[in-house]
Amino acid sequence: MVSDLEKTEALLETRLPLPRVAVGKVRDIYGVGSDKLLIVTTDRLSAFDVVLPNPIPMKGKVLNQITLFWLEHFKDLLPQHLITSDVDAMGLPKEVLNRYRHELAGRSVLVKKAEPLAIECVVRGYITGSGWKDYLTTGAVCGHKLPSGMEQCQKFPEPIFTPSTKAKTGHDINIDFSEAIRIVGKDIAQQAKELSILLYKKGQEYAAKKGIIIADTKFEFGIHDGKLMLIDEILTPDSSRFWPADRYETGHDQPSFDKQIVRNYLETLGWNKRPPAPELPADIIEKTTAAYCEIYKRLSGKDVQNQK
Questions:
Q1: Rounded CA gap, 132 and 69, in Å?
Q2: Which band of pLDDT confidence, cut at 50, 70 and 90, is reported for residue 304?
């Protein structure tokens, strides 16, 4: 029997017979007609903006299913790009369905085509990661001046909006809100800020009931028919930091249900965070798969392996 990982690797190596629009760090995007996109979420993993050589089994299905879960949860808050996650309802050519149905099922969506904003919409509820490093150096995070004496992983009184650039190569760069306004315009930047904070608060409120802290996250928006639309992944282990609430304490890094497992391992290697990335050992791959599957089950109450 061919494993899920082997099937995913085969899909990565074979280009679908559709117009390919983009190849991201994790997602492959194809055109379907003039106004729709097929997004395939692979098992690739990026850390420090570098794609690692080892795929993480089940990861693509987890990311896709978590995003679908949140899209349903947020459906009444704002427009979103999802058309369907049912492979048979996507209107794909028969040769694509016949050959790639299994690989696409559970890890692909058909969406409305939008013009993505040129910024990443990051919301932080706790001081950790690059924000913690910036605070130690400057006393601020992306233009937000913070009180002295904060501890690592301490909760902010209110979530803060800390956008970044969207680099085509290399690392995204943290920016302040005035730079975000310069890039996308005042009205769009303000809408993106308000919606990002709203989504974060609503997501954190739900996750807290499941014993999960969402420390920070990244949203993406696009313009469709002149209006802002929610696109891409939502509150996934790739775009967010998930911490178990019952083990939370300030002053140090937290255990996590996300790719921080991989980041922490890579930090021990003295790697310069430039391609090529080092190979991951089997135990780190297994722990990461388990963490991704666990966060999905905690949030949705379902096992990702059972999703079609």
A1: 30
A2: confident
Of the CA atoms within 13 Å of residue 84, those in its CB half-sphere come to 10
Percent above pLDDT 90 for the chain: 86
Q: Indicate which CATH number applies to the domain containing 241.
A: 3.30.470.20
Reported as a pLDDT band with limits 50, 70 and 90, residue 308 is very low
Report the 10 Å Cβ neighbour count for 296. Answer: 25
Residue 296, CB-side half-sphere exposure with 13 Å CA sphere: 26
Print the domain residue range for 15: 4-113
Name every residue whose Cβ is closer than 8 Å to that of residue 91 and which is 6 or more positions away in sequence.
Answer: 32, 33, 110
Q: At what angle do helices 59-73 and 282-300 cross, to 10 degrees?
A: 20
Of the residues 61, 87, 113, which one is the last residue of a structural domain? 113
> Over the stretch 176-228, which tens digit does the pLDDT of each residue have?
999 999 999 999 999 999 999 999 999 999 999 999 999 999 999 999 999 99
CA–CA separation, 144 vs 26, rounded Å? 31
- Can you list the positions of beta strands (E) in the chain? 20-23, 27-32, 36-41, 46-47, 50-51, 82-84, 108-112, 115-116, 119-126, 140-141, 144-145, 155-161, 164-165, 212-224, 227-231, 240-244
Given the structure tokens 């929610």, which residue do they identify?
A: 230
Q: Find the range with the poorest average confidence among 10-24, 51-65, 139-153, 291-305.
A: 10-24
- Identify the CA nearest to 38 among candidates 107, 98, 138, 124: 107
Look at the chain and report how many structural domains it folds into: 2
Task: Report the chain's C-alpha Rg in angstroms.
Answer: 19
